[in-house]
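ok so i was messing around last nite and threw this chain in just to see what happens. nothing serious, just curious
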Amino acid sequence: MKIFIVGVSGCLGQNLTKLAISKDYEVFGISRSLYEYNSPNFSFYQCDAKNKTELAKALKLAKPDVVVNTSAKTNVDACEDEREDAIETNVGIVKNLAELCGSAIPLIQISTDYVFDGDSAPYTESSKPNPQGFYGETKHQAEEFLQKSNCIWSVLRTQILFGNGKNLKADFVSWLLKSLKNNSPVKIVTDQIGNPTLASQLAKGILAVIERKPYNEILHCSGREGINRYEFSLIAAEIFGLDKSLISPVTSSEFKQKAKRPANSTFKTNYSEKALGFEFLNPKETLLAYQKEIETESI
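result:
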């Protein structure tokens, strides 16, 4: 079986490639940035998925059995200022893929906790979205488009994603650990709560969708427990043997952030765990798994 990965050079794309190839899938990846993976089962085509003509050419070359869209404009503050690009990336690419896949090729879309307002946690897969920022609005639009399309689709919502990979932008955890290793004090919010998610675990969830085929529904694929950023940071410091005294608790009001964040976007995951056939990791387990990946694995 061949998996077509949009955004293959990103954190999730890299982790999905590694896991899929280890399970004898073929991977055809595309991204704007050049990406190499040393396997005869990996092919790469450099293009911008916002260009429908180029995207169609890539799909024609690949002839995939399933498409996974891991690409997104995820800088929530930038989305407030760069709205046209946010729409083109977070909605336009999904529309292009849906139209090109039609009813012939299943399309798996990655979404976010930011489709919720943060006032009514924990959120189930059927909870009513109410995005508070433009990033969440674009991701919600993509979800709605797929649900009304003639695609065979699956939406996996996730949150606080981090993981191992090559040439990646800093995520929350990598930034935190680098700061603490450099003995730099950090201020971490106590009033933002969510389910930290390891990219390799989300990749496992994507492969479970491909194998178990729970299509045409929304699933929550994340860590299994909510925790505030400050408490999560303390656990990370302890696991990695770093100085917890460098971490100061603050509230979100101390930061001038353009986009409104959901205060508590905790997911209920029991339905999705059953649908995908495995138990998600709690915050400590997530960090321990990440530590093991850093120490023993390379992508």
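not much to say yet. The mean pLDDT is 98.
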